Amino acid sequence: MTTKELIIMADPNRPRHYEEEFKRQIVRLCENGKPSSQIRAGYGIPRSTLQRWVQGIRNSGSTRAVDNRTPEENELIELRKRNRQLEMEVDVSEQAAPVSARR
């Protein structure tokens, strides 16, 4: 499969999704000396996306965001999840209180 065949055409109203192998091929092009402006123009990839892929491969060998987060970022994500869970529990309790009081 060629690199161009790996591009997934996206609905302009939804974020694009690129397969991991496509990302790795693009990073290899960049590391082999092809100018990033040519890569971005040829494949329609935003500058920040290409930079994030290259940095991710250099840092952890992966372009996945979850593999490239700092411990502080992971902790913040977990705390936000926990906060949402607790807010839902409080909301359910507040809605159940009047029902329980009527009994």
Q: Quaternary state, please?
A: single chain
- C-alpha geometry: elongated
Query: Low-confidence parts, pLDDT < 50 over ≥5 residues?
Result: none
Integer average pLDDT: 81
The total count of helices amounts to: 4
Strand content: under 5%
Sheet of most strands: none
Rg is 22 Å
Category by helix and strand content: mainly alpha
Please explain how this structure is put together.
The protein is mainly alpha-helical and 103 residues long. The protein has four helices and no strands. The protein has helices at 20-31, 36-43, 47-60, 71-102. The longest helix is centred in the last third of the chain and has 32 residues, at 71-102. It is elongated, with a radius of gyration of 22 Å. 7% of the residues are buried.
Question: What topology emerges from the helices and strands here?
Answer:
Elements lengths: L19 H12 L4 H8 L3 H14 L10 H32 L1
Summarize this structure as a short list of keywords or feature phrases.
103 residues, mainly alpha, 4 helices, elongated
In short:
With about 100 residues, the protein is mainly α. It has helices at about 20-30, 35-45, 45-60, 70-100.
